[in-house]
Amino acid sequence: MAPNIEPQFTDPAVTRAKFQNQANDFNLNLDSYVRRGIFCRRIEYPVVSLLFTAAHLKPPAIVFAVDIDFTNYDFDPPSVKFIDPNTGETLKAGALPCGVFQIGPNGPMNLVQGMPGQDAFLCIPGIREYHQHPAHSGDSWFLYRSRGEGALPFIIEQLYKHSVVAISGYNMQLNIAISGFQMDLGKLPR
Amino acid sequence: MSNKQQNLIDLIFVINGKEVVIDKVNVEQPLKVSVEKALGENSRPPSDYDALYDNASLDINQSIEANKLPDRATIYLSLRGGKGGS
């Protein structure tokens, strides 16, 4: 699991209780999530670690995994980092096999952001990295805090409907090496 | 013969993972009417939500019939995310 770099500055008991509420809600509706291919890797305060799969593909595929970190929740919104589904290591920008896209006026925009060499993160209102980014300093978390954004179901649904839903099949590349010609020997003169 | 009228169906909404069943919905009604019922009185307006059935987006202003929803269709309602990226 990725190290927690956010210092705890709110009452840990309050954050833990709010985290537990989110975790309990998730567990209550586990079947509904699993049916759609959303699996829990681990729930361990302050992180909910989830695996998103494209259950509608044959064979099904792991699309990505995330660590959702509720440190200081809900004074701060949760952090969403993309991780390697097997090792749990945080993925750098550009390392994801699939983006999380929102259709804007200029076409699809990838909601997964990150400078080269830095951690990839989900960049929408309700997510810590969005509100901490200098480009969004005018869009405070406190405008969203009690409205549903930032809650675990909100994050799960955003990740799911902006990526997994749009996956229609595998993208394959074939490298073809030409080793000569096929010949119909019957057409050759004797 | 079924007890249920042919133009009445049940819809299952999943909101934040929780199921809400709206029964005996007239298929000629706009889907928005059922969405409002499923969300309840104190929620944000239906226009703040995306509705998905079978991984396809629904137009809640269209009728249930026009959205081609079968009886006991499971519809996922989720808040629209704000504009992100960049």
Brief account:
By secondary structure, chain A is α+β, with helices and mostly antiparallel strands. Chain A is 20% helix and 22% strand. Chain A has one domain (12-187).
Give a structural overview.
The complex is a heterodimer of chains A (190) and B (86). Chain A has 190 residues and is of the alpha+beta class. Chain A has one domain (12-187). Chain A has 4 helices and 8 strands, in the order H-H-E-E-E-E-E-E-E-E-H-H. In chain A, the strands form 3 sheets. Chain A has a 4-stranded antiparallel sheet with strand order 1-2-3-4. Chain A has a two-stranded antiparallel ribbon with strand order 5-6. A two-stranded antiparallel ribbon of chain A has the order 7-8. With 86 residues, chain B is mainly beta. Chain B has a single domain (8-79), classed as Phosphatidylinositol 3-kinase Catalytic Subunit, Chain A, domain 1 (Ubiquitin-like (UB roll)). Helix content of chain B is 10%, strand content 36%. Chain B has 1 helix and 5 strands. A 5-stranded mixed sheet of chain B has the order 2-1-5-3-4, covered by helices on one side. The longest helix of chain B is centred in the middle third of the chain and has 9 residues, at 31-39. The model of chain B has no long low-confidence stretch (mean pLDDT 90). Chains A and B meet through helix 1 and helix 4 of A and strand 5 of B.
Q: Biggest interface in this structure?
A: A-B, 34 and 18 residues
The share of residues in extended strands of chain B comes to 35-45%
Radius of gyration of chain B: 13 Å
- What's the mean pLDDT score of chain A? 91
- The topology string of helices and strands of chain A comes to HHEEEEEEEEHH
CATH architecture of chain B: Roll
How much helix is in the residues of chain B?
A: 10-25%
What is the spatial order of strands in the main beta sheet of chain A?
1-2-3-4
Supply the number of structural domains of chain A: 1
Work out the number of β strands of chain B: 5
What is the count of distinct domains of chain B? 1
- Order of adjacent strands in the largest pleated sheet of chain B: 2-1-5-3-4
**Total beta-strand segments of chain A:** 8
Structural classification of chain A = alpha+beta
- Spatial gap, N to C terminus of chain B: 58 Å
The N- to C-terminal Cα distance of chain A equals: 72 Å
- What is the overall pLDDT average of chain B? 90
User: Could you say which overall geometry of chain A the principal axes of the C-alpha atoms support?
Assistant: elongated
